[in-house]
Every structure is written in C-alpha cells, then in structure tokens.
Amino acid sequence: MIGTVLGNRYEILSEIGSGGMAKVYKAKCRYLHRTVAVKVLKDEFREDTEFLQRFDTEAQAAASLTHPNIVQIYDVGRDNDRYFIVMEYVEGITLKEYIQQRGKLEWREAINIAIQICSALSKAHSRHIIHRDIKPHNIIMNSDGVPKVTDFGIARSVSSETATMKIDTVGSVHYSSPEQVRGGYTDEKSDIYSIGVTFFEMITGKLPFDGETPVAIALQHIQDEPPLPSSYSPNIPPALDQIILKCLAKSRQDRYDSVSELINDLENIRAQNGITDIVLPNVKHEGDRFSTKKFERLGDEDLSRSSRAGSSKKKPDTEGRSNRLLMGLIYFMLIAVILGGIGYFVKAVLTDTGFIPGEDNKPQDYVIGNYVARDLDEVLAELELAGITPEIVYEYNDDVDENVIISQSPPPDTNFKIGGITPLKLVVSKGENLVEIPKVKYVEHNALRIKLQDEYGLEVEEKSEYNEEIGQNYVIRSDPEPGTLVKRGSKITIYWSLGPEKKEVVVPDLIGYTYDQAVNKLLAAKLKLGKTFPEGREGYRGKIVDQAPKAGTTVTEDTTVDIFFEDNVTEPGNNQGGNQTGGTTNKTIIVDLPGGFDYGESVQLRGVVIDRSTGEEYPLFTETVRTEDFPYPVVVPVPVPGGVTIKIYVNDALVSEQNF
Fold this sequence. Notes:
Elements: E1 5-6, E2 10-18, E3 22-29, E4 34-41, H1 49-63, E5 73-79, E6 82-88, E7 92-94, H2 95-102, H3 107-126, E8 139-142, E9 147-149, H4 154-157, H5 160-170, H6 178-182, H7 188-204, H8 214-223, H9 238-247, H10 259-272, H11 300-311, H12 317-353, E10 364-367, H13 376-386, E11 391-395, E12 405-409, E13 415-418, E14 425-429, E15 434-436, H14 445-454, E16 459-465, E17 475-479, E18 485-487, E19 491-497, E20 504-506, H15 515-524, E21 528-533, E22 544-548, E23 554-556, E24 560-565, E25 584-591, E26 602-611, E27 617-626, E28 632-639, E29 644-650, E30 653-659
Parallel strand pairs: 11-14, 16-19, 21-24
Antiparallel strand pairs: 1-2, 2-3, 3-4, 4-6, 5-6, 7-8, 8-9, 10-13, 12-14, 15-18, 17-19, 20-23, 22-24, 25-28, 26-27, 26-29, 29-30
Helix pairs in contact: 3-7, 3-10, 7-9, 9-10
C-alpha cells in the first residue's frame, strides 16, 4: 500500500497501526496538503454486503460529530474495492500505552481524562451514535495530554457474527459489557460499562476481569462481581469505588441512566477535591437494585448473628399470641406519639403566623423599606439591627452594578412579621456576565469554535487567510484579543491559517535533460518531482523524452511533474514484426482521451503493432484503465531497426497511431 494514491487524492506514506477490521496508514491529502490518517478495511470484509452498507451509513453519521475529544472524520470512499475512511491525524500514543508507561494514573488525572471521554460520548449519544468498542486502545493522547476517541461508528457496523469473531481476536472482550459478550441488544449503557472498565484500569493499572481465554473473560463479565478499585489503590476517594462499580453493574438498569449523570458525579468529586464524605445523589437512585454493600465483607458480629438466627427453634404458639398483643400495644403508642407531634407542629405554625400569640416568640411587625437600587451591604446592616435575615438570590444583570439590589419581595411599605414564616427575598446583581477570551493562537480552529460557543457562550465568526508561519487549520489571532473581558453572547472573530499562499508558476521544459538537471529545474520553479517512467528508474542517467504536465503549462506551486525516459533493453528473440533481428527498445506513448464522449468510470485500452514490410498485425496489450488516470503513459516494445506502426484504441476507437 505504501505509495498508493487512494481516490486520486490520499497518498499513503506509512503504516501506523492494525486492528481486527482495518489497517491504519499515515497519508497526505494532495488537495489540502495536510497529513491525515486513512483506515482501510481488510479484504475479508469486502464481500459482506450488509456490513459494507451499515459501515458506510455509520461512518457518514460519525463524520457529523465535531468535538475536541473526538478524532474528526473527513471523508469516506472506495477505490478499486478498497473501502477507506479518512480521519484527523493525531500525533501521540494510545491511552493503553500511556497507562503502561505510568503503571497507573493518579486519581485526579484519571478523573480529568474520564470526564473528557464521557463528554465525547455524550455528544455521540445525543446523535444516537453508540461506540460499542470503548477501550484504551481506541483513545489517543495527543502531545498536549488531551484524549481523543476514535473508531466511532465502526464497531456498530459489524454484524453479530463478525463482532463475536473479532472480539476474540483484538482483546475487546476485556472491555465488553455482559450484554455484548452474550451477543444481545446493546445501547448507550453498554458504552458506560466499557467506560467503567477503562476507568478501573486507569486508576489501578489492572483489569477488573482477566483470564487465559476470551471465553473465560466473557464468563467473568456475566457471572463475577468486580473487585473494589480501592483494593488496588487505597488512596482513591471511597466515592470513586461507588461510581466505578455502578458503571460495572451487570444489569443495564442498575448503571447510570446517561453519560451526563456520570459526568456530574465525577465533577462533584473533582470540585470537592476527593473529600471522602461528599454526597453523590446520582450514585444510588431510589429503587436501584444496585448497591455497593454486596461487595463488602460481613463482620464477625454479622456472622454470629446469622448463625444464631439459623439455629433458633420454632417457639410455641402461646409465645406467638403474646407477641401479637405486644405489637398491638406498640402500634397504639406509636399512633399517640404521631398525633401529639402533629398537634405540636400545628400550634407552632399558628403561633408563627400570629393566629396564636406566644409568650416569647410572638412575631414583631416591621414596615419593609425600599431596598431596590441600594448597596447590599448597607441594607444588610440596616436589617441586622431589626433582627431580619433576608434570603439573597444573585443573578447577572447588564444594567445594574454588582452588589446592588435589583428587586425585593415583599414590596416596600409592607407590614412584615419578624420571625414569621414568610422571608424577605432580595435579588442582587452580579454585574455583567463577562467571560475572558482564552488563548487562541496555534489552536485548531474547529476545536476553538466549539469551545468558544459551548463554554464561553460567544457568537463565533471564522475567517481564513494565508500565513507563512502558522500551520494550516490553526488559529492565527482573534478579535477581540485573548485576555479581553466580553459579555456572553458577544461576537468574536477568529482568523485561521490556510498555510502559505501558493502562486501560479510555469512548468519548465525538461525534454533532453538528465534526472538531476530536471530535479534542479523543478525546485527552481517551486515544483515537485512526481513519478518517473518506466517505474523504478529513479536516478536514471539517460535523457528525458516526455513530461506531464507539458512545458509551458501554468500550475500552482508544489504541483508534481512526471518525467519519462527511454529505457533501451535488448531482448533477443522478442521480435514482434518477425523480420527484425536486433532486439527491441521500449517507447513511451502518452495517451489522452478525445473530448466529446461520456466514457464512464473506466475504459478498455488496447494496443496493436503492424509490420509495415509485411502488413501483418500483432496484439500488444489489452487493459482496463480508469478515466481519471488519463493522460495515461503506455510503454510499448519497438524493434530496434523500426519499420512498425503502433496503434492505440480506447473502447475500439483509434486514439493514437505512430510510426517507428
């Protein structure tokens, strides 16, 4: 594949990876002059019609996902039964390699990485795209330490039979949910299970389930409970145990309802800096079947109590009747306590509202003043003297200065009861809702646009321009500049680079020059050397006999120019004409397609040689050529003494006739 050009656009440079379904290559896009990653499906999938159809559908859906933590898909195509996906090329290593290098990650770093992975999956799930193959191998850590999830849509495209086969071969079974290893229905919660396994591995350096065979591992996913992560990493907050075990619940209904819920719990831990007694309401929902208690060991007291309960004998029926009488007495006393409590509560409420005056806590009347447009601190000092503690609500306001009261309830001149149940509510301005424009230079413009829109609430306008210093697709500057405070909803313009501006140049004449001379002339004209014909003759010392594009053609800088040499090869006995004895020499004929015809995707190219002394005609070659490959170079053998006519036909129409 190295050197192959897919879709007449993507030039394969090197292989960078291989998986169960495809190989990944580093390539160069000839149109946009950028480095990309090209994933080419393996041969065994070419005949699976259902797979190819679903693969195409899912790949195009995944291409619609734009997110800083998702490897962007640029293109999907087919070239001579080679199905490929063109993706963003990310310099870095996989999360699996990152974990292996570190042994295990510090829990705060693991939370930061997990939140970004979950953010990417939340975007995908909102588009009804399920990954189905989340694992550290499919997460790339770039040079800035930012995780990027790849392989969106591909796992979903695999048929059930193929999926089962590939799980055994690529090791995905370590990260697969119980429903996946059973071959059952999968949904967003299957991705949450795989996140749990990945998170477990990040903070412990180990997998929750492992075995000698894929089948053994699959059975553990279905039957065994995972160990506590803290048993491997004692320093992690106990709340992380609960979160990871909830992700790893056997039943889908016991896992998080969505990735967003998981993000909220992780954000709670990060905000509290790992405090062990924080409350995580999402970890244990009311009615959940899942509970971390089943992972705890019973203490000695629990064991002895269980033994006594199991060994107790059945009591006589008279003891049962006594128990029933005792329970009736307890119920009566409980009802009396409840009724007494209700009466006390009603009395307290009526006392607070003034219906029943109390001795010590009778509410005092106070006339509410006008606090609107006044400084909060000044009003609080005044209310403190009256014994009133107001309820304060803060909100952004573009028209009212910070710490100034916007509104109040009750309104001014209202009789207010101090110590009553109705509070005094003050709405206070936080001032303008301002954000500080972040650093923008050298940031990829798509990622920056999403960040400015989603995190900063700004309206983003993009403009591209040529730049000699900043690489293509990266931001040059912004207006307003970074560090400027602006209102949310304001407009910001980011300028991103198209790379150096390419000018038009004229192709020099290379006919009659040597290889080295041609290279120097092309460099001087800011052009590049393309292919040499016959192929494999780079550095050939002969003279150039033809070139493409032709001399004098106007092209843009960095355009490639192909060159053609005469390759004299003596081949005794290979005499096409029958009356020649001096061997043959190879001649290159450039064939072009005549205009005015609709040739389709490919044509049949056929060549014949005619011995002019005898009039006999011999076939030279027949091949199928794609129309996009024209002008097409044809190398034909010609008897050294000459005396022959070479004719080239396209779809049986004569397009070239030359005498030698």
